[in-house]
Amino acid sequence: MRHIIGIDLGGTNIVAGCVAEDGSAIHGVRSVPTGAEQGPDAVVDRIIATAQESLEEAHRIVPGLKPIGVGIGAPGPLDTRAGIVLLTPNLGWVNMPLRERMMKAMAGTEPEALLKQWLATGSQTFEQIQKAFWEQFGGKK
């Protein structure tokens, strides 16, 4: 079974988990406060740390698990082609280059390679990630 690291970025919490591609399972779910008041760099660092913790826990549950990509759901209008969060009042971001910041912050890590792979294939798996998260958390953040 193929898995995707799914990240839900909200104004209150960041939630990450390794989701089965078909939405049948989610492993290593981690949730931490977003900490938007600390600025975008701190939020990006928290996203990466949370995703890494999720992946480590998922590896303990499912030895040999190798995610095929990373997907991030962010609030507000987005330019998905450019990887920019256009406006998100709950985080205080305007034209925040989330993809670029994530790539810089993750340089040399396993999630970086996965994010590159996911970005190269487009966003066709986003709906699967979103569906699995919403089913798991009942639409609550």
Mean model confidence by pLDDT:
79
- Major beta sheet summary: 4 strands, mixed
> What is the CATH architecture assignment?
2-Layer Sandwich
What oligomeric state do these chains adopt? single chain
Main-sheet strand order equals 3-2-1-4
- Based on DSSP secondary structure assignment, what is the total number of beta strands? 7
**Helical residue percent band:** 25-40%
**What is the class in the CATH system?**
Alpha Beta
Strand content: 25-35%
Please identify which CATH superfamily we are dealing with. Answer: ATPase, nucleotide binding domain
The number of helical segments is 4
What structural class should be given to the helix and strand makeup? alpha+beta
The rounded distance between the terminal residues' Cα atoms is: 26 Å
Strand and helix order? EEEHEEEEHHH
CATH topology: Nucleotidyltransferase, domain 5
Radius of gyration: 14 Å
Could you say how many structural domains there are in total?
A: 1
